[in-house]
Amino acid sequence: MARDRDFTVVGRALSTPARSVFLNLLLDGTSRPAGELATAAGVSASTASEHLTVLVDAGLVTARTQGRHRYYALAGQDVAAALESLGVLADAAPVSGYRRSRRAEYLAAARFCYDHLAGRLGTGLTDAWVRSGWLAGRDELALTDAGAVGLRELGVDVDGAVTARRPTTRACLDWTERRPHLAGALGSAVGTRFLDAGWVTRHRSGRGLDVTDSGRLLVRETWGLDLVEPGRARVR
Amino acid sequence: MARDRDFTVVGRALSTPARSVFLNLLLDGTSRPAGELATAAGVSASTASEHLTVLVDAGLVTARTQGRHRYYALAGQDVAAALESLGVLADAAPVSGYRRSRRAEYLAAARFCYDHLAGRLGTGLTDAWVRSGWLAGRDELALTDAGAVGLRELGVDVDGAVTARRPTTRACLDWTERRPHLAGALGSAVGTRFLDAGWVTRHRSGRGLDVTDSGRLLVRETWGLDLVEPGRARVR
DNA sequence: GAAACCCTTCGGTGGACGCCGAAACGTCCG
DNA sequence: CGGACGTTTCGGCGTCCACCGAAGGGTTTC
Questions:
Q1: Chain B residues with CB-CB distance to A4 below 8 A
Q2: pLDDT at B135 over 80
Q3: A155 within domain boundaries
Q4: Which H or E run includes A140?
Q5: Residues A36 and A144 reside in one and the same domain
Q6: Which of A1, A14, A103 to mutate to test the interface with B (most CBs of B within 10 A)?
Q7: Most buried among A37, A40, B132, B162, using CB within 10 Å?
Q8: In B, which residues are within 8 Å of A59 by CB distance?
């Protein structure tokens, strides 16, 4: 005889409006900091924090600390699938398959992680610069002499980044690509240069970035980095 | 953009131990009266009633009134599937596919619905007797003269059933077969005769019945009713 | 009609929990 | 180091709700 399942933990996790909003926001596969979830649900930061621990304890959501931020995401595909099937019960509306939202796709392509480039653009550039010897090491991403020269030619304020108080380079784990990308003072300088040179422009809302034609051309010609058009990107 | 789903209603429905027990009991596809569910969960009848209305309002469970009983069952296969996928989250144990339990299969084959035969045996006999002209009408199941003769020959106390205060015949909707079977005073008399003649025996626990070899032979030879061996019955 | 039975509805009570602001903790920046 | 920032923890408050017993409605049986 099959052992009984205890639905109470998962059920309780789903039973409040704020947590329902959280899960809906995370259903597209994105990771989001606690504060963003709090404002989206219209609750205070402290309340959101409590809700999030409930979701984590229930196994629906995972947390990852990054600097002074804490990113929350669905625990896995099976969670998304379960919520999907539950959604069928919630409203009689037909199911739309689980997939990244259009906005999530934009963010996955290119975005600002605070002051440095992230997404496929950020990880792609980092990979290319490691391959070409501009950056050394997998985790440290130390700036080499060749890298200093190359980036200076690009117009990046390398000297300012080196003399800054904050660490020159830092590896920041990308939550869509699951690989590190360049952060720290140098990462910030690179991001500033990309914006100033018009290689990327801020997307209408939030952290998203549009890679301009000139930027797309630059990264392809210089580092062989081929960025897929967001709108046409193959998902999943 | 996909409209947000509201998980709160379903979530709240799952969030208490008593309701979790109810759903586990109903997961095998059986229908059960409110009282049975109440004692199984260890709560009072009134509390159970409130829980059940919550489950019905959430769309997880349906209620069907039968006489002075009220049978509750899962609302459908999709509900079972959703609970199944949720169960994966609840415990890490691997899933055993959704299917009728062995006990449920026994009950579906033959059982007592209070004092009259139900399950495939009950509906099969009723169908056969309607076909052969012993009973008339789809809903009333009135006893014909030929039926009185035939049943009397079987040893059924037809006269006692006709003169009883309660209605001679009544159609009782079968919850496994979803078709009517014979109830009322005559149904009771038939059930009594089947037990006395040794055509069926009470299963060890509760309402379940075992059809004996003599009973199996009788129904096949007399009415062409072929009952599948419970243990070998194909499910689903 | 009367009694037995099943179930639901109705009050009332106690505990659980969602909510917030204040304070503490850790990180980043100059 | 000092200030800003994101997040969590802590106390306290108000509400919701799970629970029960008693009462009421409906059905079956005698």
A1: 20-21, 24
A2: yes
A3: yes
A4: none
A5: no
A6: A14
A7: A37
A8: 89
Amino acid at B68: R
**Interface confidence (ipTM) of the complex:** 0.57
Lowest mean pLDDT: which of A149-158, B97-106, B131-140, B199-208?
Answer: B97-106
Same domain for A187 and A77: no
Q: Does A2 map to a domain? A: no
CATH number at residue A44: 1.10.10.10
User: Of A72, A8, A82, A6, which is closest to residue A34 (Cα–Cα)?
Assistant: A72
Q: How many domains does chain B have?
A: 2
Tell me which chain B residues have a C-beta less than 8 angstroms from the C-beta of A60: 89
Residues 62-91 of A with CB under 8 A from B: 78-79, 81-83, 85-91
- The residue segments making up the domain with residue B68 are 8-98
Tell whether the model's pLDDT for residue B221 goes beyond 70.
Answer: yes
Phi, psi for residue B218 in degrees, rounded to 5: -55, -55
Question: Considering only residues 142-181 of protein chain B, which place a Cβ less than 7 A from any atom of strand C?
Answer: 165
Q: Which nucleotides of strand C lie under 7 Å from a protein CB?
A: 1, 4-11, 17-23, 26-30
B1 part of a folded domain: no
Contact A23, A83 (CB under 8 A): yes
Last residue within a domain, chosen from A42, A69, A98? A98
> Searching chain A, which residue's CA lies closest to the CA of residue B102?
A1
The stretch A122-144 carries a mean pLDDT of 84
Check whether residue A55 and residue A147 sit in a common domain: no
A10/B86 Cβ within 8 A: yes
Query: Exposed (0-12), middle (13-18) or buried (19+): which is B96, by Cβ within 10 Å?
Result: exposed
Residues B205 and B120 in one domain: yes
- The position carrying tokens 């440290």 is A140
User: By C-alpha distance, which of A69, A70, A68 is closest to A55?
Assistant: A70
What residue in A sits closest to B77 (Cα-Cα)? A89
